[in-house]
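Hi, here's the filled form for the chain we discussed.

Project: internal
Contact: R.S.
Residues: 265
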Amino acid sequence: MLSKRLIACLDVRDGKLAKSVKFVDTKDIGDPVAKAREYYLDGLDELVFYDITASSDKRSIMLDVVEAVADQVFIPLSVGGGVRSVADATDLRLAGAEKINVNSAAVSRPQLIDECAEAIGNQNVVLSMDIRRVVANSAQPSGYEIVINGGRTATGTDALAWALEGERRGAGELVINSIDADGTKDGYEINLTAMIGAAVRVPVIASGGAGLPIHLHQALTEGGADAALVASMVHFGDYNVSELKRYLHNQGLKMRMAKSLADGP
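And the returned structure, exactly as it came back:
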């Protein structure tokens, strides 16, 4: 059995760490480089960095901030926001990213997934999907729709169909980010995560809504996710990385544990 992963997400706006609720009311909350270092030292498995306004502003990602974060962590770093070409992906890799997240541009031009997978390898291409609930209909039979440009633009694309296409085109992982749950701390969208996880063969990352340790456990068990992504619950100091990993370990989940974490206090 593969170990489950705990991933922290840094949403960055204008070089500052930011957090929103349901993709609106975004506030600056700190220094992304300092937070990256803090989480790395506390045993985090992986870090995700999103430049959350790069797509909507139609600009390239801030490479200097990516480089500053990469200099502080020695765990897998996944970066997204404004990735529109293989050249963008290559620039991010040179800046220190191990994995590249594609999102809005891939919905507009799905061939981007194929091109990046061929250029840097399937295992390094992550399809990040921002998803909201809708009334199931002929266009979105799953009852979930893909939204792009930081939650600003509805696409009419069915989330399950897009997940399957992304996998077919070469995405090595899928991030299932629920807009409805984002920042609420009420728990992940388990139904959505489980539905997509059961349909694909690549790892699925649950994202959006974590507020309590039990929410992570639910996503990794009931939701069948391979990894749980957290933001608010660590950014605001409600929990720290090591105690979350120890909780999951004590609940019987296989985690990558430093000996000190596995032993506990």
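Let me know if anything looks off before we file it.
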